[in-house]
Amino acid sequence: MADLGRAALVTAFLLLAYASVAGTAAAWHRRRRLAESAQNALLAAFGATAVATVVLLVALGRHDFSFSYVADHTSRELPLGYTLTAFWGGQEGSLLLWLFVLCAYSVLAVLTARRAGRETLAWVVPTLGFVGTFFAFMLTFVASPFASQVAPADGAGLNPSLQNPYMAIHPPMLYLGYVGLTVPFAFAMGALLARRTDERWIVATRRWTLAAWAFLGVGQLLGAHWAYVEIGWGGYYAWDPVENAALMPWLAATAFLHSVMIQEKRGMLKVWNVLLVVLAFCLSLFGTFLTRSGIIQSIHSFTQSSIGPWFLGFICLVTAASLTLVFLRLPLLRAQTRLESLVSREATFLYNNLLLVALALTILWGVVYPLLSEAVTGEASTVSKPYYNFFLHTFGLPLLLLMGIGPLVAWRRASLRALGRTFLWPLGAAVAGGIALLLAGAGSSRVGVIAYTFSIFVLASIALEFARGTSARRALGGVGWAGAFSSLIARNRRRYGGYVVHAAVVLLAIGIAGSSAYQTVREQRLHPGDEMTVAGNRLVFRGFQTTNESNHRAIRANVDVYHGGEYLGRYRPGKNQYFAEDQVSNEVSIRHDLLTGGDLFLIADQVNGDGSVDLKALQKPLVNLIWLAGLVFIGGSLITLWPDAREERRLAERYEGATVRA
Amino acid sequence: MSVALLAGALLAIAAVVLVAVPFLREPVAADDHLIQPDAAEQRRLALAEERDRALAALKELEFDHRTGKVSDDDYRELVGVLRRRAAETLRAVG
User: Fold this and answer.
1) Residue of chain B with shortest Cα separation from A198
2) Nearest Cβ partner of A418 from B2, B66, B70?
C-alpha cells in the first residue's frame, strides 16, 4: 500500500511540474494544445493526489503501523474518528491535505473561470502548477507520509489535545482558507503575466476569495472554541504564533475584500489590490511554515522538522517573483480616477485598509521578532500579550468605529449637513449607551467601555442602513415591508451580507471585551466539603470520581454550584491520563448561562494526593457572544456568496460577448 | 510485481493519456494558436467595464440620495456629471 501512495505522489509531482513548465511554454508561445495539455495535467494531478489521500486514510483505518506516520500518530485504542482525523494531526499528513485541497481548488477554479479570459487562464495554470509542485516535492522527497518500517505492536498515539471533536473540522476549515488564497493569487499573477489588468481576474475570483476568507474566519473561531473547551487555561486566544499565523492572512484578505470594491466601482487601487493578494497568499504560506516547521514552540508545533528551510526559500521566491512582476507591470496598473474627498465611502475603505494592514504587520513583527532576535543574538526572546493587546486596541478600536462610519457615508463625497443627518441616531444611541454603561459601573475598564460604545454605534448604523434601505425600496414600488426588505438584500447581497458580517464582528468585540475586561478569577485549594465563591456563585467540592475509558483514565472533581439558595447543578472538571501517549490533559467543566451569555468556567488545576483539588474558577461575562458571532458570520458570508442572477446576467453580457468574439 | 506497484503504474499511464489527449485528439492542428482578443475587443471590454461602472455609480448616487446620505445640493451637482458619463460610455459601447 505504501508503494501505491509513493507512486501516486511521484506521479502528482511530475504532473504538477509538467503543468508549470508546459503551461509556461504554452502561455509564452501561445500554443493552444499545449495549454490544454497543461490544464489536463492539473486534473490528473488531482486524481493522483486523491489516490495518495485514500491510501493514507485506509492505512489509518486499518491501523497499518508499517506506515511510520500511522505508528507515530495513532494507537490501537484510539477511537476510529480520531484515528482518521490523525490524517492532519502530523506534519506529513497535513502537507498532503494542503496538496489535495490545492489540486481540488485548482481544477474547480480553472474549469469554472471562463470569465477570466483565455490569455489570463493560460498563465493561471502554470502558477497553480508551480505552487502545487512545491508541495508535491516536499511530500515526495522531504516529508513523505508513506515512509515505511517494520510494524511495531502498537502506535505512539495521538496528542491528547487533538483528541477532541473539533479536530475533525478546525484544521480542514483552516486549510480550505489557507489554500483557497492560492486561487486569487494565481489569477492576479496570471492577469499580470498576460498583461490583462482589467477587472476580469477580480470577477473570476470574487467568490473564491470570499469563500477562502470565510473558511479562514470560521476555522479560527472553531480553533478558539477548541482552545476554550479543551486546552484548559480559561481563554480562547493566546496570541500563540500559530494562531496569529491564521489571523494575519485573514486580515490581509479582509482588507482586499474591501479595497477591491473601490477598484470595481472607481477603477482605483489596482496596485494596492494586487499587493494585498500577494500579501495574503504569502502570509498563508508563512502560516503553514510556522505550524509545520517546528521553528517555534507552540501548542500547534508537534514536531521539529527539516521542512523549514525549504518553506522559507519558497516564501522568499514567491514574494520576490510576485513583487518583481508587480513592479514590471506598474504602467498597466495606473488608477483611472482619483479620490475626490477624504470624507467619502471609498476614503473610509482606505482608512480601514491601512488599519487592517498595520494590524497584520504589527502581528507579523511580533511573530518574527523572537526568531530574528534568536538568530542574531543567540538568545530567545518573547513578544507577549501586552504587545499584541496594545496594537489590537490601537488599530482594532478605530476599525470597529469605521465599521459604523463607513455605511453612513456616501460614495465620492459627503456634505456636513448630510453627515449630521445620517449620524444623528447612531451617535445618539452610542452616547446614551456609553453613559448608561458608566452609570452601571462598566468604567472599571476604559477599553471595555470604548469597545461597547463603539459597538452600539456600529449596530445602530447597521440597523439604520437596513431601515432606510428598506424604506427607500418600499417607496419605489408597491411592495410591503417584508418584500422591500428581501428585495433590498437580493439586489445587493455583497453590501447587506457585508453588514451582517459587520454585526458578527461587533458581537465578537462585545464577547471579547466582556470576557476579558470584566472577567472574575478565583483560585483555591479545596478538600471535600470545602467551598469557595466566584461572582456570586457558591462552589462546593464533593470529592473525586475516577473511571477507566478505552484509551485513558478520567479523574473528575465533583463540584456542586449554587447561586443564592438555588442549586444550579454538578460540574466535573478534572484530568485525563492517556495510556499510550503517557500524557495528562486538563478537562474543564463549563456552565453556560444562555440568558446572560456568560460562562462559569471550572479548571481542576491540580489533583492532590491528599484528596484535595486546586480549583480555578472564572466567571466570563458575555463570552458566548463570540460563538454566536461565528453563526452570524456564516450567515453573512452565505448571503454574500449566494449567486445573484441579476449580476450574473450583467457580467455575462459584459464578458461572454468578449469570449465569443475571441 | 506487487498489486500496489501495478496500480501505481496504471495511475501513471492514465495520467499520461489524459495529458496527451489534446495531441491525440488533434495530431495535426489546423490552428494551434491560443486565440486572444484583438485590440478592438480589448477596447470593447474596457468600455463595457467603464459603462457598468458609470451606471453603478449613478444607481448608487440615486440610492444614497433617497436614503439621505447625499444632500439635495450634492445630488444636483453630481447627477449631471454621472449621467453624462453614463451616456457617453453607452454610446461608445454601441
Assistant:
1) B46
2) B70
Nearest CA in chain B to A117: B36
State pLDDT tens for residues A241-271: 888 999 999 999 999 999 999 998 888 899 9
pLDDT digits (tens, 9 = 90+) for A148-158: 998 898 888 88
H helices within A294-344, ranges in order? Answer: 308-328
Provide the ipTM.
0.88
CA distance linking residue A189 with residue A127, whole number of Å:
7
Q: Could you tell me the three cell numbers for A647?
A: 449580476
Q: What SS3 class is residue A68?
A: helix
Question: Would you state the cell numbers that stand for residue B44, as one nine-digit string?
Answer: 470593447
Distance of alpha carbon A239 from alpha carbon A226, whole angstroms: 15
**Bridge partners (DSSP) listed for residue A526:** A613
The number of domains in chain B is 1
Is the Cβ–Cβ distance between A73 and A155 less than 8 Å? yes
Judge whether A17 and A129 are in contact, CB under 8 Å.
Answer: yes
Nearest Cα of chain A lies from the Cα of B47 at a distance, in angstroms, of: 10
> For residue B89, what are the domain limits?
2-93
Q: Which of A209, A237, A265 is the last residue of a domain?
A: A237
Residue indicated by cell numbers 463549563: A590
User: What is the pTM (predicted TM-score) of this model?
Assistant: 0.92
Q: Find residue A538's DSSP bridge partners.
A: A533, A562
- A605 lies in some domain: yes
Name the domain count of chain A. Answer: 2
Residues of A615-629 as b/e, b for ≥16 C-beta within 10 angstroms?
bbbbbbbbbbbbbbb
A650: contact with B, CB 8 A cutoff = yes
Segments forming the whole domain that contains residue A16: 2-237
Q: Which residues of A429-445 are buried (b: 16+ CB within 10 A; e: fewer)?
A: bbeebbeebeeeebeee
Q: Where do the DSSP E strands lie in A204-283?
A: none
Pairing verdict, β A566-571 and A552-563: antiparallel
A466 within domain boundaries: no
Mean pLDDT of A225-241: 87
3-state secondary structure string across A508-558: HHHHHHHHHHCCEEEEEEECCCCEEEECCEEEEEEEEEEEECCCEEEEEEE
Cβ distance A662 to B46 less than 8 Å, yes or no, reads no
Residue B73, chain A, CB below 8 Å: the answer is yes
Q: Which residues contact A219 (CB under 8 A, 6 or more apart)?
A: A170, A171, A173, A174, A175, A176, A177, A246
Minimal Cβ distance to B52: which of A41, A465, A654: A654
Give the single-character DSSP code of A410. P
User: What span, in angstroms and rounded, lies between the C-alpha atoms of A427 and A420?
Assistant: 10
Q: Do B4 and A422 touch (CB under 8 A)?
A: no
Q: Is residue A474 part of a domain?
A: no
pLDDT surpassing 90 at residue A454: yes
Residue-wise DSSP of chain B: --HHHHHHHHHHHHHHHHHHHHHHH-SS-S--B-----HHHHHHHHHHHHHHHHHHHHHHHHHHHHTTSS-HHHHHHHHHHHHHHHHHHHHHH-
Taken as a whole, chain B contains a residue count of: 94
Q: What are the two backbone dihedrals, phi and then psi, of residue A464, each rounded to the nearest 5 degrees?
A: -65, -40
Residue type at B20 in one-letter notation:
A
Question: Rounded to an integer, what distance in angstroms lies between the CA atom of residue A572 and that of residue A479?
Answer: 55
Instruction: For residue A296, tell me if it sits in a domain.
Output: no
